[in-house]
Amino acid sequence: MIKEILPSVFLIEIPLPKNPLRVLNSYLFRGDGRNLLVDTGFNLQECWAVMESSLQQLQVSMDDTDLFLTHAHSDHAGLVEYLTRPANRILMSQQDVYILEAGLKDHRFLEAAAQHLRQSGLLAAGVPYTPQEEAVVKYASHKAVNLTQLREGDLLSVGAYHFRCIETPGHTPGHMCLYEPERKMLVAGDHILATITPNIGLWVVNRDALGEYLQSLDKVADLDVELVLPGHRNLIRDMRARIAEIKEHHRQRLDNVLSLVGNKRMTAAQAAAGMKWDLTFKSWDEFPFNQKLHAAAEAMAHLYHLVIQGQLAMSCEEGIYYFQLA
Ligand SMILES: [Zn+2]
Ligand SMILES: [Zn+2]
User: Fold this and answer.
1) Which ligand is nearest to the CA of 172?
2) Which residues, by Cβ under 5 Å, contact ligand 2, an ion?
3) What is the Å distance from ligand 2's center to 171 Cα?
4) Cα 240 to middle of ligand 1, angstroms
5) Which domains does the chain show, CATH number per domain?
6) d(Cα 266, Cα 116) in Å, to the nearest integer?
7) Is pLDDT larger for residue 141 or for residue 255?
8) If phi over 0 gives left and psi between -120 and 50 gives alpha, with beta otherwise, what is residue 41?
9) Radius of gyration of the chain, Cα coordinates, nearest whole angstrom
10) Residues 276-295: pLDDT tens digits?
11) Which of 49, 76, 87, 107 has the most CB atoms less than 10 A away?
């Protein structure tokens, strides 16, 4: 479905079958000479069919349309191979370009999912070793494309809109938003969402993803924004109120994780099984494979943040990470 949300700005809703995110919000900014398309949907026939017919309906040719990817996740970048043309640019932050290219060349997504299954303790808890079934792995683009790297402060102009690139690491290491200061508009990808909180997951224990994310929330809270165009769900008017809610959510999560650990020693998988999730499943055992992986990654991000904060200690035994009070 296509909605014109502002003059020359169209929201294209790309369905995400059998995924709790339900829909990916792709945006088309119509320019005088060139257009800009933001984010794509999974590398799935159902997504491509809607994208292709929407572009036809809007009479948009990818020959004169550049593509901006907010981050490397497959629900945002999965269709990139079908949208690339000799004459268009595929734009993305430097850090997520590395991630996407490594995912294509060295199967890095697969490797990360495999490592996560081990390190989180999911595998030891009996979750099957099928990293290839994880959504980011399964629905990624399979062909290498020519990517153009963007950095903080780079400018992108399309018609009457002039965007500044804002690096917002956290949801992914190179997540990037686009800020339009005159229209007070933020193209937010998965940095800020309404009604659901963006998944902040740590797949490989190498960075404080949650710490980065909280800093990136403060960074955009300083911008003058009246309209947020998120990667999923509804548009957001009161950005600062939503940021305050998301920060409060993580504060509660950190408290929840700390009290779950208590005097025990636990893995991310064990913490995830005890955490509260906004999903319809009755128990942890009912979580499908993909949800278990993402929940354990989110638990890992919170546990590791508490290690960085000096509240928890971390140890590794036979490839599994354990957490206990510091
Ligand atoms: Zn994402
Ligand atoms: Zn997403």
Assistant:
1) 1
2) 75, 190, 231
3) 9
4) 21
5) 2-261 (3.60.15.10)
6) 15
7) 255
8) left
9) 20
10) 887 788 889 999 998 999 99
11) 76
